[in-house]
Amino acid sequence: MAEKKIGVVACSGEECLGGTISRLAVRKIMEKDRPGVTTTLCLPLFIAGDGGEREFAKNYPTISVDGCSKCCAKRAIEKFSAEVSGSIDIEAIIGKELALDAPLSTRNLTEHHQKMVDQVSAEILKIYDSL
Amino acid sequence: MKCLLPCNGLDKCAGLVSGQAAVELSQQDDFELICPVLLNQNKSPYEKILAQGDLVVIDGCNTRCASKLAQSLDLKIKDKYNVSDVAKSMDLKLGKDLAVNETTKAVQKALVEKLTQTEDKKEASTFEMTTIDYDSFMEGKFVFKVPKQGFFFNENDCWVYVSGNSARIGVSDYVQQNLSDILYYDPPEIDDEIEQFDDCGSIESGKAVFEIIAPVSGRVTAVNEALQDSPEWINESPYERGWLVEIALTDEVTEDLEILHDGSSYFEYLKKKVAQDV
Q: A interface toward B at CB cutoff 8 Å?
């Protein structure tokens, strides 16, 4: 596993369930699976150009976690900073139909959704371990 | 219909609240949700609903990512909310922790309530102003105008014009020139009691947010509703069409005015201030 800091950018999209899952999976990595190593980069802040998000992604390996195949997070990183060190497309993991379902309020989170979060975070960890 | 554009940030939990409130509201018929990251990438999926509805921005914090995104795409903001400000008004503090807890739930609930409230009927303005004569001076390519008579100014560059027991408040030409294109006016509430030098709303451009500092004390009786659709009036006519707030004055108005600049005094003060800025 890489010892240095790794950036993770969730699309956190509001267009579909995949965006909700991306946010929850990245939080799980940061809070439970790889605390201390993980730096989450806020995509809206990244796009706005404030803060040090863009600079961080230029200098540290950064993984994009996109809710659907539009890949907003990956595209933003590559537009404003550098090539991503790894990318996740949740649509490819949980299937298009589920990924494109309506976005979810966390108060309505079910065990089924939690399993999707675990599935996605496991894929993110594989990239971590390859860096 | 209202089109909700939350910042949906992952930097602070205020971003989380903005997104969650927007998702909750989008279950209702009157609201459409706009994904900020998709909007940034491709405006076209939202063009139809943006043409039909009013854009309401929900920023998590004062970085104002959602507002900046709307501005960068030339979208007209009809109304806006700031999650951190809502929390502050409830004496609650939202930290960096992204977890949902009682505080985030309470702020989300308050925000949803604010967004679903039926707008109170605003009192129509009956205020009358006389024709205004201006003094002006030039610094570089900028011309600064100051009314000769009837206006008083504080050193925060906000003006007051008194008529009987009422007064109208606005910002000076210097403010609008510094801010450049003003994109949004956040007014105080009708019936707010304001002390001299209290905040009474704000105006915002792509450059900065400017807090309006009340030159006099009073109770808010009207706000310039036309600025919600035409905030550029503050740039075009800061002393006339671009007025901001009307108030019913208190008995202390004479004392309030004594510590303000009149037109000629502010003119000299502003000349020095502008010279120092260069």
A: 10-15, 19, 23, 26-27, 30-31, 40-45, 47-48, 50-51, 70, 72-73, 75-76, 103-107
